Amino acid sequence: MKKTIITVLGKDRxxxxxxxxxxxxDNNVNILDLNQSxxxxxxxxxxxxxxxxxxxxxxxxSDGIAQLGEQLGMQIKMQQDDIFxxxxxx
Length: 90
What we know:
Blueprint: E1 3-11, H1 16-26, E2 30-39, E3 42-50, H2 58-72, E4 74-80, H3 81-89
Antiparallel strand pairs: 1-3, 1-4, 2-3
């Protein structure tokens, strides 16, 4: 399994989760876990997904979800688990 971490941050609005989940489903990425909260009008979500069977390479998937974030007025980042772990170990 190739675990990937997705983080989402921005002003809350209708359809954020739906848009992200549709993008992932369209690219054959399975959602393993997610946690989201809204604090004072700001939406925050972290997802753990399995990108093993993704229909496009990781770089293309990551760029596409970042572009989706721009369309939604959100910041969306996608990182492979090992890179995410290394960054947060320092």
